[in-house]
Specification:
- By secondary structure, the chain is α+β, with helices and mostly antiparallel strands.
- The protein has a 4-stranded antiparallel beta sheet with strand order 1-2-4-3.
- Strand 3 and strand 4 form a beta hairpin.
- The longest helix is centred in the N-terminal third of the chain and has 30 residues.
- The radius of gyration is 42 Å and the shape is globular.
């Protein structure tokens, strides 16, 4: 039998050792893959991997592309009803303290009325007082927030928007929001104005609301116009 010279055996052992190491590494890698364990990467690889997940990554270049985010519904713009969440409505919104009169300049519901309407009320009030009748302001100017609240309550009370519209207008059409209407009480006052109000330009507008008065400047000469059955018959209330 022919033996390899010592130098040949030494060379063979040197070759087998690297091969054995490579084999062990391959087996270890196979075990890691089988167990689903992630291979460690340098921190720089982690940074570049996060970049590849961005929307700007290009498909087909070995980097994962993040699917587009689901579209969200448009958020409705804030409306007047959301502003009510700042707290309860108060005098600044047109809430009238009990016993307010047409002379109360410190009550916004009175002070924010149209200047000509307020002047007509103040001309009529002392004449009515001579007859033993006092004007009480039950409602005057209102903020849009207040008007919207009243409309929602009317819908709940009457069961539908159509029926509520016979009693409460929207914030965009209500003459109360513009300061052009006033609700007067008590019944003696509304009765007095129904008889004498035209002389001051103060007219009832709706048959179903005997307390609701507005200014009609030609009423002293021509009388008050024919009343509407309710606000739904008033062209001003139509959008």
């Amino acid at each position: 039998m022919t033996r390899n010279p010592p130098s040949s055996r030494t060379s063979t052992h040197r070759i087998r050792r690297p091969l054995l190491v490579v084999g062990l590494v391959a087996v270890l890698a196979a075990i890691v893959v089988a167990l689903g364990l992630p291979l460690l990467k340098p921190s720089s690889d982690s940074d570049s991997d996060s970049d590849s997940d961005s929307d700007s990554a290009t498909p087909g270049q070995g980097s994962s592309v993040r699917p587009p985010a689901p579209s969200l519904p448009d958020r409705a713009p804030p409306d007047s009803s959301q502003q009510e969440r700042r707290g309860p409505l108060d005098e600044a919104d047109g809430v009238v303290p009990d016993g307010s009169t047409v002379l109360d300049d410190d009550v916004p519901a009175v002070a924010n009325l149209d200047a000509d309407l307020l002047a007509a009320l103040r001309r009529a009030a002392p004449v009515a007082a001579d007859d033993g009748v006092a004007f009480t302001v039950n409602s005057g100017w209102r903020s849009p927030e207040y008007q919207n609240q009243l409309l929602r309550k009317a819908v709940a009370q009457y069961g539908s928007e159509a029926e509520a519209a016979r009693w409460v207008a929207t914030a965009t059409t209500s003459p109360h929001v513009s300061g052009d209407a006033v609700d007067i009480g008590p019944d003696e006052a509304t009765a007095w104005l129904a008889e004498h109000g035209a002389a001051y330009g103060l007219c009832r507008i709706y048959r179903n609301e005997p307390w609701h008065f507005e200014l009609r400047t030609d009423a002293p000469d021509r009388g008050c116009p024919r009343r509407y059955a309710d606000p739904t018959q008033d062209p001003r209330m139509r959008p």
